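FW: tagging you since you asked about this chain on Friday. Here's the raw sequence from the shared folder, copied in full. Didn't touch anything.
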Amino acid sequence: MKPSQKSDLRTTVLAQRDAIPESQRLSRSLAMSQKVLALPEFVAANVVMAYMSMGSEIDTQAIVEAILERGSQLVLPRVDRTTKMLALHGVRDLQHDLKPGIWGIREPDPVHWQIVPLSRVDFILMPGAVFDRQRHRLGYGGGFYDKLLVLPGRHAITVAVAFEEQLVSEVPMEPHDFSVDILVSDHDLYR
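HL: got it, structure written out here
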């Protein structure tokens, strides 16, 4: 598939996601968050990487708060503009350890906490724009997670959450693209 076709698919699906009324998006986000929190893989994880949501994404606030409340190590990504890679940081306080980063996403302030090696992470919650029921994922076009997941030492399970509006019959995959291990949607769970 040509990059322009991927871009068109991403634009179409994101417009559908953007059209979900905010109150509905919040209640559906909470329901999907509860599904993630109940996953045996999540319950067993000591070090959990998540992300702070932006725009019309599923609200991840309940998930990141639950990670901290249960005493697990919360890891959040920060875009390193120099390397164009994700740097992983341990976070203990959502109010004090985060600042607006690239695209306005709340991300770790590197002044507060050190880098956490990917090899320590047990569970990765990943964002994405488009998914299919075979757990294929189309991100936002930066390739940040595709580059992260090929790093040596990764053993973490990968999980994504998606509104039904983000699911299509087939996501075009290229050799460098990754499928997630588990996809949680409004109505189902795909392994």
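FW: The first helix runs from residue 3 to 18.
HL: agreed, and The longest strand covers residues 73-80.
FW: great, closing this out.
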